[in-house]
TrEMBL record:
Belongs to the methyltransferase superfamily. It comes from the Eukaryota. Residues 47-146 form the Methyltransferase domain. One of its GO terms (biological process) is methylation. One of its GO terms (molecular function) is methyltransferase activity. It comes from Achaetomium macrosporum. Keywords: Methyltransferase, Transferase. The lineage of its organism: Eukaryota, Fungi, Dikarya, Ascomycota, Pezizomycotina. This is S-adenosyl-L-methionine-dependent methyltransferase. Signal peptide: none annotated. Pfam families: Methyltransf_25 (PF13649).
Length: 201
């Protein structure tokens, strides 16, 4: 049976012992692929790091000069791990940490970039309604000219009409997964770029 990725209890139990883990690819490789996109934004751009978990993505963003980063997760232990990762790397904590549910974000906070590395896949374990709720929630928090970047294992993660009514969806790149043998088939993760549709509240 698949893990209960949509349940907070799963992540609480996992983060009780896990201090660092990267989904799909390293943060360095992910941000290298996003380099041309990130270069279009000022270094003080507001960035929402969705489902931060025990990833060091926020550290790599900070190394690139982005410090206006809000790391959110609905499991408080994840934020403790994230703060420790940042403190270990830089000696202090400058990015923001917030307990929040990505399906119910507070629209008073707005961002130019939302970024997640596998969060949408975890939420999708709760069904299509959860995916749509997440898209609606993120859309309300994005600037009109903002972007949502998502790394997913699914070639059809955002094929829902309800999501496409909110965002223009494109595959920015395909990220190859490591092979244990050269003869193994090519398997990719998909880096999605979602831009808010204009005129959609």
């Amino acid at each position: 049976m698949p893990a209960d990725y949509e349940k907070q209890s799963y992540w609480h139990d996992r983060f009780a012992s896990e201090t660092a883990f990267e989904w799909y690819t390293s943060s360095a490789a992910f941000l290298n692929a996003l380099g041309p996109l990130l270069d279009k934004f000022p270094r003080d751009a507001g960035i929402l790091h969705l489902g931060s978990g025990t990833s060091d993505l926020h550290n790599h963003l900070r190394e690139r000069g982005f410090v206006n980063v809000t790391n959110i997760d609905y499991e408080p232990l994840a934020l403790q791990r994230g703060q420790q990762l940042e403190r270990n790397r830089f000696g202090d904590v400058r990015t923001r940490y917030l307990v929040a549910d990505a399906t119910q974000l507070d629209p008073k906070d707005t961002y130019q970039i939302a970024i997640d590395k596998g969060m949408a896949d975890a939420i999708a374990c709760g069904g299509t309604e959860a995916v749509v709720a997440t898209a609606e929630s993120i859309r309300r928090c994005l600037d009109p000219d903002g972007v949502w970047v998502c790394l997913s294992y699914s070639a059809s993660r955002f094929g829902l009409k309800a999501v496409q009514s909110l965002f223009d969806v494109q595959v920015l790149s395909r990220v190859p997964t490591p092979k244990s043998k050269p003869t193994n088939p090519d398997i990719f993760h998909f880096c999605y770029l979602l831009r808010p549709r204009q005129g959609v509240a």
